[in-house]
Amino acid sequence: MLKLRRGVVASTDPLLVEVDGRERPAWADRSVVGEVEAGDEVIVNIEALDLGLGSGGFDIVHANLTRGLDRGDAEGEHVMKLNYTSLQHPVEPVERPVEAEGTARVPVLVLPLHGHLAPAAWSAAQARPGLRLGYVQSAGGALPGALSRDVAELRSRGLLSGHVTAGASYGGEGEAIGSLGALDAAGELGWDAVVAGAGPGI
Predict the structure, then answer these.
(1) Strand 89-91 relative to strand 79-81: parallel, antiparallel, unpaired?
(2) In this structure, how many other beta carbons lie within 10 angstroms of the beta carbon of residue 188?
(3) pLDDT tens by residue, 13-38
(4) pLDDT under 70 in the chain at which residues?
(5) Is residue 200 a contact partner of residue 143, using CB atoms and an 8 Å limit?
(6) Are 102 and 110 in contact (CB under 8 A)?
(7) Closest Cα to residue 157, out of 126, 180, 116?
(8) Rounded to an integer, what distance in angstroms lies between the CA atom of residue 145 and that of residue 60?
(9) Any residues with CB less than 8 A from the CB of 158 and at least 6 apart, and which?
């Protein structure tokens, strides 16, 4: 069973949630639960912090009871991510329709660990300045794309041209039903090459 508790957001930068009279570090995936503000009543999953996990040692906001229950209907989104869980939500996939014309294939570097993403992107930029390198985040490690500080930093420095989350991972600039579909869409996304691998946390 999920280890869920009610809490109140004490601050947002950093995000701290008061649970049972104690402020605890937390993370909220705003693409799923919406914005959180100080004073909001939230439901948090406290399992990871209680277990003392390293990189995952914080509470996760599961729902915002104050402002997170008013989402409207999806517009054009017709594929589910996190299917059959309480966090399932619709996305618009990057996969091309079956009848679409073929596109040029691009080279792919598969990363065994998320920690290899930054060195790989930097090396690619040194070897080929101007290379449009995209990142396909597969399942494994953290599933939320927004949790990767490396991706945000590499995007801001221009070392990554885009970020697609594939399979069970979600929250990238593009969503793919599977890793093969994401790689197939790379040419249409304007990428010259792809680095692919799991999210952070393993």
Answers:
(1) antiparallel
(2) 14
(3) 999 999 999 999 999 999 889 899 99
(4) 55-56, 72, 74, 97-104
(5) no
(6) no
(7) 126
(8) 15
(9) none
Predicted local distance difference test score (pLDDT) of residue 152: 96
Q: Which single residue is written with the structure tokens 């009848």? A: 99
What type of residue is 61? V
Q: What is the pTM of this model?
A: 0.83
**Mind listing the pLDDT tens digit for each residue in 57-79?**
899 999 999 987 877 676 777 78
Rounded (to 5) percent helix, strand, coil in the chain = 20, 30, 50
The first and second tokens of residue 43, run together, are 């439901």
Residue 90, preceding bond cis, omega within 30 degrees? no
**Beta-carbon neighbour count of residue 45 at 10 Å?**
17
Cβ distance 196 to 163 under 8 Å? no
